[in-house]
Amino acid sequence: MPPTAVSAATAAAAAAALPSPSQRRVPAAKSVWVNPKLPASHPLHHRHKSAAELQQRQHEDRAIDVAALVDALSAARTAADVAAALSPHRPVSGRLLGALLSRIPDPRRGVALLDLVAPDLPPPALLIPYNLLLRSACRAGDLRLASGLLLEMRDRGGVSPDAFSYSTLLAALTRAGHLDHALTFLPLMEEDAVAPDLILFSNLIHLALRGGDAPKALALFSRLRAAGIRPDLKAYNAAVAAYCKSDLIRDAKRLLLHDMPADGVAPDAESYSPVLAALARRGRHLAAVSLFSHMRAVARVRPDLSVFNIVLSAYGQLDLARDADRLFWNMRRAGVAPSVVTYNTMLRVYGDAGLLGEAVHLFDLMRSSASGGSGGAGSSMKPNVVTYNTMIAIYGKSLEDEKAGSLVQDMQANGVQPNAITYSTILSIWMKAGKLDRAAKLFEKLQEAGTEIDLVLYQTMVVAYERVGLVSQAKRLLRDLKDPEGITKETAITILASAGRVEEAAFLFRRAANTGEIKDSSVHRAMMDLFAKNRRHRNVIEVFDEMRKLGHLPDSETIATAMNAYGKLKEFDKAAALYQAMREEGCVFSDRVHFQMISLLGAQKDFEALETLVGELSHDPSIDKRELYLVAAGIYERAYKFDKASQIISQIRSSNGLDVQKFR
Known about the structure:
It comes from Urochloa decumbens. This is PROP1-like PPR domain-containing protein. Pfam families: PPR, PPR_2, PPR_long. Keywords: Repeat, Transit peptide. By secondary structure, the protein is mainly alpha-helical. It is built from 38 helices and no strands. It has helices at 5-16, 27-30, 51-63, 66-75, 79-86, 94-103, 107-117, 127-139, 143-155, 163-175, 179-183, 186-191, 198-210, 214-226, 233-245, 249-262, 269-281, 285-297, 305-317, 321-329, 340-352, 356-370, 385-397, 401-413, 420-432, 436-448, 455-467, 471-482, 489-498, 502-514, 521-533, 537-549, 556-568, 572-584, 591-603, 607-617, 625-638, 642-653. Helix 31 (521-533) packs parallel to helix 33. The chain is globular and about 90 Å long.
């Protein structure tokens, strides 16, 4: 049945004219929530009832057939029908209104009901009905209506949102992926003296992390701790992952090994996994293996599948194939069944170690298990495209290019379609084998067939042409990227930037930026790195400003690149303003950013500001104090202030601690 006329008008107006959450009081915008046909509230409706009257009202509420009343309200087609259904029970109590709102599935019909019976209740009693209606709107996915209800509560006299109101709305917004809109309600919570709770912050942090916005996740985590809320395991795990995504591994390890135990929070495998992955990604494989040993022997944490996969790969990078082999075959004893990712990792370990026989044996074991043989791994061990790509690369390293080529046909016969990495690997193998014509023909066929040509394939062919001296063909491919077909402009810009083609990348970036085709912040970072390498510092700032216009919160390395560009341009005030603005926004900096700001102050000869900043940073537990004072000493030395520099070095060597006050 369609909602009542009152509810339809109210909901439609709400959807069309939802006010901005940043506005504290907007009577004109909120007038759409007021039903002008409702009678004005009478003071008698708000006077306190005696205990006997309240007991009688509760007794009458229990005697009402709520299910039948809900059916009557759901069948109502006009405001008069709703009023007629409720007339025997007027004035409606808060208890009855709550029972009705919790059972009516249509939140817009609930709005009409609330508008009708609101005069029966004192304003403070409307909080629970509003919260029930807000929850119903969130469950129905009508977040615009839910936002409007919360704003109406703020504008209505005598009732204001509580922690449940905000938590319900913000949780729904975060689940729906509207992080930026959810964050606009945080200042309103402060105005209403409603403190965000741990669950709310955890939801916001996780949403930012899932959206790839690690800087925003870290800013929220810092805000959580500043609010005096002790993080739980979920919040700590999200923060550790955000630090690792921002390449702030030391801060992540500090949380994992110091802050979590200090707060009585026992880390689990999910806590260790991102740190291990970040260490492996940075090439610090020995540190990853050491942390894995600490995890098992000291922290007594049982590794999960992702941890095993990371450590197996680290063993392979350390040329410890036998240790990886032993760990792999003992996984089931630890209660963790290997997955196809684990098998693929071991194939790569065997291939890097030159153990072709072991790799072929494991590959055959996967194929036999997939065909119902005695592999015992089940259908989950069926080779996928990564498996075939790994084996093709292994055959290529063994100079068996014919076997590599036949494996492409084998994977297609088994229903596994090659991807860009497959073709890129084959092209590289054929290039190394001197089969340039064969590789060029394959690339042309892929283009003619409309196969998606991605970053990997283009880079492979450009590098291949340049290696064999076919510079004209390489330039032709790069020219094609200036007007790309079949690939996005973002991909084309990334390819050109990776190839170091400044002019081509800059031309395409400006054209795409003007048409609003660049949404991924990684493209901005690639262009900033390209311009910085070529000392085009003004262009670095232009790209950074474009990135900020799109609302991206830059990570630590991006801020460092921008500050370096300002320094090269002698625009020290802008660098300082950027540093301060990013700190106020809650960005978490690496030591490099702080040290760069100190260096810029030294270049500006502003030693008073330098000492002030060093004094602030000396109390930050995440800063490497020794490096901090060495940077400060170097600046004084370059400024011919040898006494200051000598005093700092002496303090570093002394065993009495490092008190920056002594340097002044």
